[in-house]
Amino acid sequence: MAISVRLPEALFSAKTLLLLASLAAAGLIGVSLLQDIAIHVLGIIGSDQRVWVTDVDSEQTLPAWFSTLLLLAAAAQLFAVARLLRDQPTGLGWLILSLAFVLLSADEAVSLHGKLSGLVPEGVETTGLFAFAWVIPALIICAIGFVLYLPLLLALPRRVRNLLAIAVVMFLGGALGVEMVGGATYEQAGDTLAYRLLATLEEALEMFAVIVLLYGLRLYIELLEAQDVAPAERPS
Prior knowledge:
Blueprint: H1 14-40, H2 62-84, H3 91-110, H4 135-154, H5 158-189, H6 193-225
Helix pairs in contact: 1-6, 2-3, 2-6, 4-5, 5-6
């Protein structure tokens, strides 16, 4: 006899997923931050005793794995939106965004963004805020993307639009803004507490930005699915 188990829909609601993802992100960030305090403030352990698998500023770690999963989840949600709007003019734009987030997840896993430094022409000064040279082409790419996708963003229902705008500001503020300040700090003083705090802030902004994005996309998908025919995006 087959046994059917029905889980409550609330378990998979947008708010529940938002809460669970936020708790996981806060836990990972908190563990990494406690290590920095133990090393740089309390002096309980040395840098060589750091548990690197829990460090937010290292590769092949639990935080990096979690961020990769978040970005893949965002790619899946964006693809779902693209599928619902496949007959609309903006459907292709959502599909391209989905593919972009697949690339972002790959970057999080194997740190591809460092390769962008090779696009910086010789003679361009890469010190101070541009100590991490990859941010220069990244800024240009983001500026182009902003211009291209601003009409799509403005056409979204107000609540969804606000959530996605917050997510964009948080993500770029961390991935580029805080990263630039962190690069200048590292160039001047090395792996100090100040740099570690900036690195933690950067990763925290990126994680929570994607979580906010996931929440906004989930709401938008629910809105589209509630309609018999998905309409073209328009302000609510």
